[in-house]
Amino acid sequence: MNVGEICSRVGVAAASRMPVQQAARRMRDRHIGALVVTPGRGRGAAAPAVNRP
Q1: Among 40, 36, 28, 43, which residue's Cα sits nearest to residue 12?
Q2: In the chain, how many domains are there?
Q3: What pLDDT score was predicted for residue 11?
Q4: CB under 8 Å to 53, separation ≥6 — which residues?
């Protein structure tokens, strides 16, 4: 087994001004332990996911 078989290639992001509660909810809903924090306007919109081979 390798890492690619158990890890997702789709990143989940949050704008830096997103409220902590909303970021935590996003993590809970997607069953993930980390978010990529991006500069943003704080409207809660996620940045496009990065999917590289």
Answers
A1: 36
A2: 1
A3: 83
A4: none
